[in-house]
Design brief:
Layout: H1 3-12, E1 22-26, H2 30-36, H3 41-61, E2 66-73, H4 81-104, E3 108-112, H5 120-132, E4 140-147, H6 149-163, H7 172-177, E5 189-192, E6 211-214, H8 224-235, H9 245-252
Parallel strand pairs: 1-2, 1-5, 2-4, 3-4, 5-6
Helix pairs in contact: 1-8, 2-3, 3-4, 4-5
The chain binds farnesyl diphosphate.
Length: 253
């Protein structure tokens, strides 16, 4: 069966009333994908960046409202300098080359993460994209770059302390309102490619009740059919949010 036929078959099984609102993706395995083909790690990242377009376009087409992509973590600065440089360059190219197409598809764009140590040209290009797409109503692409879940919470706490709020007034909502982009909802489905089974400091606050999905497929090979497999697995789970199955049953009736 071709990938296209498989995609059609999987798509027919989707329950449109149980779609995840927000999918987070840890795009892992670029390096191993490249190594297996005798290519450099950078080729792996390039192929990984190329694959983003099809996934975003398809997620938008099937009605997913938010996709967060983990493209560079605060810990990734410790990688070899040439790789860090290549990832920065790749992001800049991606922002410039994909901007109009994403806009035409109705996508809303955000760069999510710490900004203070990112190159100014990246901030500038990201802001151009965000502004261009700000009135769109399609999928929200949250590109997490120089992102760390703990760093995000630390930065939120700093803002809260600076606001002078009294400690007894602080609630979970106060924290949520001070995350990088408060309008990004909790993650419903968290996908990690390449067989690793960790969440690696991604979206810590918003992942409290995420369903986790791990696939051995390397990110450059992750296509629409793989995304559908993940969504179908999600639809087969019972999300209880701390309640019992019986309680959920009585809520539904
Ligand atoms: C993990 O694979 C991947 C990353 C650290 C970077 C993810 C980046 C991309 C998909 C491309 C960049 C996209 C943009 C838009 C900038 P790894 O290198 O850790 O793979 P490995 O575990 O097999 O070595």
């Amino acid at each position: 069966m071709s990938r296209e036929q498989l995609k059609k078959e999987l798509e027919a099984r989707l329950d449109r009333s149980k779609m995840p609102t927000h999918i987070g993706i840890i795009m892992d395995g670029n390096g191993r994908w490249a190594k297996n083909l005798g290519k450099s790690r950078l080729k792996g990242h390039q192929q990984g960046a190329r694959g983003i377009k099809a996934i975003i376009r398809y997620a938008n087409a099937i009605g997913i409202k938010h996709v967060s992509l983990y493209a560079f973590s605060v810990e990734n600065w410790s990688r070899p300098a040439f790789e860090v440089y290549a990832l920065m360059k790749l992001l800049k190219t991606y922002l410039i080359q994909q901007r109009n197409e994403l806009h035409e598809e109705g996508v809303v764009f955000r760069l999510v993460g710490r900004r203070d140590n990112l190159p100014a040209e990246i901030i500038k290009e990201a802001e151009i994209s965000t502004k261009l797409m700000q009135n769109n109503t399609g999928l929200n692409l949250n590109l997490c770059f120089n992102y760390g879940g703990r760093a995000e919470i630390v930065d939120a706490v700093k803002k809260i302390v600076q606001s002078g709020i009294s400690p007894d007034k602080i609630t979970e909502e106060t924290i949520r309102q001070n995350l990088y982009w408060p309008e990004i909802p909790d993650v419903d489905l968290m996908i990690r490619t390449s067989g690793e089974m960790r969440t690696s400091n991604f979206h810590l606050w918003r992942c409290a009740y995420s369903e986790l999905y791990f696939t051995p497929v390397f990110w450059p090979d992750f296509d629409e059919a793989e995304l559908l497999n993940a969504i179908l697995a999600f639809q087969g789970r019972e999300r209880r949010f701390g309640l019992t199955s019986a309680q959920l049953g009585s809520q539904e009736s």
